[in-house]
Specification:
Helix content is 55%, strand content 15%. By secondary structure, it is of the alpha+beta class. It has three domains: 247 residues, Rhopdopsin 7-helix transmembrane proteins (Up-down Bundle); 141 residues, Immunoglobulin-like; 163 residues, Alpha-Beta Plaits (2-Layer Sandwich), CATH 3.30.70.270. The chain has a six-stranded antiparallel sheet. Helix 1 packs antiparallel against helix 11 and helix 6 runs antiparallel to helix 8. The two termini are 53 Å apart. It holds the Pfam family 7TMR-DISM_7TM. InterPro entries: 7TMR_DISM_rcpt_extracell_dom1, Diguanylate_Cyclase, GGDEF_dom, Nucleotide_cyclase, Rev_trsase/Diguanyl_cyclase. This is diguanylate cyclase. Keywords: Membrane, Transmembrane, Transmembrane helix.
Length: 575
């Protein structure tokens, strides 16, 4: 059974990976028109004509447009020339796509002049979700070289690849990507909103930190892929996407730090790492504030600090979760299962920015898929945490409600349950009976045989009483050697029979008290509920009836009705 549960968890974990594999294969299988590429950095005095002339002379640097290539954009930018292999002669709609969507502007030099285009462009241009897309004339796409200028940008230049394909293939691939990205982002947002609801209902900040972390990651992916602009249409973010993306990245690490501190119970399982984790949670917002000041010195300082702090922070969280998991934190393994794949993808993407792994163009999409995967895994971890906390709370409640020696209800818990029973039956004709039981000669038993023997006797008597009463009857230890029981839906004669049976069973346990064959027994007083009764009045009457038994021979039952009857009705002796 346990093996089956493990297999199911592995199957659940494999679903996003299989989905991502399918998407990457579908994207790789798209039919693209072959391209040859050349490039060089922009120099002063360059014109489109001189670049095309240099292209024809073969003096530009060559590259493979189908692989990711990083082009410098920190000075004047870079020129890129793409030469398609002409296929066919008829008119067809052709598009040039640049993936992943760069944050800066790219200008296409066509027959009708330069056409600048950026990811945050809200115009009527053809939008390729997750990509920049230019619509080309068929004649130009199949014969003439395509000239692009990657305009200078203050951001880190990410590697890009180029694809030329007909409109139908592009629309199919674009539809696949949009479905994939929308589903992943919807999963992350849904998990975050669900956690927010639980944070409000349970007043547990762990769920709130998870919500902040997941929503920040959604913003990060939305900026990097352009999803916030197309299809969501948040054009009001145009021009500030770099700042928004950097801020969201920093805050996501901050929320993740605060989340792991509570989720993995770092204070208990890895106390030495708690202070660095909390410090990371507060350091990242400070860096964001420095970035937002607009003061050049502070902005430069923030830009210098952010990447080293992100790298060290990610490693710190990984080590903290691993340490907590090894020392017994169940939730830490959920965090590792969700965080580690995403961290690996992020590390590979960072390496790709330096020119490594040029053929792995699916890493950006993998970041979205792994975000959805992490959202699911951490949500399962939160659910497991909530169930564990509920189990622990119920266990503590059981311990608080039960007598530690006899394992039956203690006085407080029995009183609460008895009051509820009286309230539930207050406006009905259902009868309620209260039995007050006191063990006979118990002090002598303790004096002659010791308190350990007395404790064993109490445990044995409580077990016998529990077995004789119905599961719905309330049995509790009132104090010392006194027990109380509340019975419902029994008339007085039936209650007397039940109490007599209890007397008989306790006496037949044959627990010796002294050497003169005196055995432990029980005296029971009985009170039926009458008009205007409360629990206190019923206990008082049953207690008086029990003392009446004590005065008339013990090991008997007496029902209290009216004070005049206390002398007129003899106790019922057990056979």
């Amino acid at each position: 059974m346990r093996k089956l549960g493990i297999e199911r968890r592995w199957l659940l974990a494999a679903v996003p990976l299989l989905w991502l594999l399918w998407f990457s294969q579908a994207a790789a299988g798209a039919k693209n028109i072959p391209l040859h590429g050349m490039w060089r950095e922009v120099t002063r005095g360059d014109t489109p004509a001189t670049i095309l002339a240099a292209f024809r002379e073969g003096t530009l640097k060559t590259f493979n447009p189908a692989l990711l290539q990083r082009f410098p954009r920190d000075a004047l930018g870079s020129w890129v020339v793409l030469q398609p292999e002409a296929i066919g002669t008829g008119k067809e709609r052709v598009v040039l796509s640049i993936y992943p969507a760069p944050l800066g502007t790219i200008t296409l030099y066509g027959a009708h002049g330069p056409i600048p285009y950026a990811m945050d462009d809200a115009g009527d241009s053809l939008h390729g979700h997750g990509r920049l897309v230019f619509r080309l004339d068929a004649d130009q796409a199949l014969s003439a070289p395509i000239l692009l200028k990657l305009e200078p940008s203050g951001t880190l230049a990410a590697p890009e690849r180029f694809a030329l394909q007909n409109m139908d293939d592009f629309l199919q691939q674009d539809s696949n990507w949009l479905t994939f990205a929308t589903a992943c982002i919807a999963i992350m947002v849904a998990m975050a909103l669900m956690a927010l609801c639980f944070a409000i209902m349970l007043r547990d900040m762990t769920f709130a930190w998870y919500t902040g972390y997941m929503l920040c990651y959604v913003v990060v992916q939305g900026v990097q892929t352009g999803f916030l602009f197309h299809p969501l249409g948040m054009s009001w973010l145009a021009g500030s996407e770099v700042l928004v993306g950097a801020s969201a990245t920093a805050l996501s690490v901050s929320f993740a730090s605060l989340f792991i501190s509570r989720f993995c119970d770092v204070q208990h399982y890895a106390p030495a790492l708690r202070v660095p984790v909390i410090a990371l949670g507060f350091a990242m917002p400070l860096i964001v504030l420095l970035r937002c000041t607009g003061i050049d010195a502070l902005v430069v300082m923030a830009q210098t600090l952010v990447n080293p702090v992100l790298i060290l922070g990610a490693l710190l969280l990984l080590i903290t979760a691993l340490a907590a998991g090894v020392r017994g934190s169940r939730q830490a393994w959920f965090f590792l299962a969700g965080w580690t794949p995403l961290l690996a993808i992020t590390a590979m993407t960072s390496a790709q920015a330096t020119g490594a792994l040029p053929s792995l163009d699916w890493l950006n999409d993998a970041s979205i898929g792994m975000g959805a995967f992490e959202a699911i895994v951490l949500s399962l971890g939160l659910a497991d945490r909530a169930l564990t906390m509920r189990h622990d709370r119920d266990h503590v409640r059981v311990l608080a409600d039960h007598d530690p020696l006899t394992n039956i209800l203690n006085r407080r818990a029995w009183t609460e349950a008895a009051n509820r029973m009286l309230a539930e039956t207050a406006n009905t004709e259902r009868s309620v009976t209260l039995l007050f039981l006191d063990l006979d000669h118990f002090k002598m038993l303790n004096d002659l045989h010791g308190h350990a023997a007395g404790d064993r006797a109490l445990v044995a008597v409580a077990e016998v009483l529990s077995n004789e009463l119905r599961p719905t009857d309330l049995l509790g230890r009132y104090g010392g050697e006194e027990f109380v029981a509340m019975l419902h839906d029994v008339h007085q004669e039936q209650a007397l029979h039940v109490a007599t049976r209890l007397c008989r069973r306790v006496h037949r346990m044959e627990i010796p008290v002294n050497l003169n064959d005196l055995r432990l027994s029980v005296s029971i007083g009985l009170a039926m509920r009458s008009m205007g009764d409360t629990l206190e009045t019923m206990i008082e009457r049953a207690d008086q009836a029990m003392y009446y038994v004590k005065l008339h021979g013990r090991n008997q039952v007496h029902a209290y009705e009216r004070r005049a009857d206390m002398m007129g009705t003899p106790p019922r002796k057990q056979p």
